[in-house]
Amino acid sequence: MKRTIEIGLLQSKGGNYAAISCASRAGVLQGVEEINADASLDVRFHIVERDPEGKIDRYAPLCRDILQNSQARHIFGCVTSASRKEVIPELERFDGVLWYPLPYEGFEASERVAYMHSCPNQHLLPLLDWALPVVGKRAYFVGSNYIWGWEMARIAREQITYAGGAVLGDRYLAIGDTELDHIINDIRVLKPDFILNSLVGDSSYAFLERLVSLKAEFGSVNSPAVLSCNFTECEIAPANGAATGLISAGPWFEPENGQGGSLLEMSRQAVHELANLLHNRPQAEKLSLSELVRAASQDGYQPKLDPTNLHAAQPVIIARLEGDHFTEIQRFSAQRADPYLTRYIPRPQSSSFLKVIA
After folding, report:
1. C-alpha span between 115 and 209 (Å, rounded)
2. Where in the sequence is the domain holding 285, given as residue range(s)?
3. Can you list the pairs that 256-262 forms with residues at least 24 positions away whose Cβ atoms lie under 8 Å?
4. Per residue in 227-278, pLDDT tens?
5. Is 92 found in the same domain as 20?
6. Residue 61 covered by a domain
7. Structure pTM?
8. Do 19 and 150 share a domain, yes or no?
9. Are residues 232 and 273 in the same domain?
10. In 3, 134, 233, 319, which residue has its Cα 20 to 30 A from 256's Cα atom?
């Protein structure tokens, strides 16, 4: 007989990044349906759901509510890095675990978080390694004004500079902000080879729509390429066709025209991973995440999560959006996550990167 385990779901059904959160939510719902129907597993999940409505100040209280007022210890959710960081203190205080299914900027390894998507050595660095020789070395950054945008720009600046390139501009918008005149004018004047777009949700869709007219001014030969590490299938429709040609990096793209992309798939996989970690281990839901991973390993199961940093190894796929689907350009085998870039050693083009000025 299956034992019923409550799990939390903390994703927004509306707000500035609803397409992203709804895709992730759909992945959790699909995963739970599959687990509950799987007769080979001795667990079934019951969802305790809360809706933050895309408001940053609602994530921590609702996370606390789930942990205090239900039996759920494992919560699937959060979209932005800001919301993830908001809930970590609540997870620490009330003994919870967050299963986080989106790409993020790295430089974090909480014992309370299962990082199921990818970090910079699994998305940004491979994307730049591919792009710099192909599209050019003159970059322009635009991102949402919080840690995701800031850190993506910082890492990319270092990589591009060491490759002998240049960053022509670096601009930020509040999440949901669509006032873009100053950024579009910048790009018109500076004419970069490519744009690294780290905007989130509505800001990104508005930016891509404005770029359509600008690209018409430039002509197809001189138009900058648009690169992204967070744009996937669930955002094609909200972007209204303006994202055609965008080049994205991630661990998974829909094999055919789909709606959710890697955000749905990593959420679905996260539910399956928890079920496999709990299977045939009564009361294991009360263990810490690292204890749970170790116990499963000792029983012969190969966890997706690295026991040292609780990040999943992921393949790297670079793909171009063509109409309503992504076409794969290049694929790399599964990369172990290196959230602090400890194995990344940039190589300067000249003998000295730093200069002493008297």
Report:
1. 32
2. 3-117+262-314
3. 256/325, 257/324, 257/325, 258/233, 258/325, 259/23, 259/26, 259/233, 259/234, 260/23, 260/26, 260/27, 260/232, 260/233, 260/234, 261/23, 261/232, 261/233, 261/234, 261/326, 262/103, 262/117, 262/232
4. 999 999 999 999 999 999 999 999 999 987 777 899 999 999 999 999 999 9
5. yes
6. yes
7. 0.94
8. no
9. no
10. 134
Q: pLDDT by residue (tens digit) across 124-145? A: 999 999 999 999 999 999 999 9
Our count of domains for the chain comes to 2
- Is residue 182 a part of any domain in this protein? yes
> In CATH, what number is assigned to the domain containing residue 7?
3.40.50.2300
Asked, for residue 348, whether it belongs to a domain, the answer is no
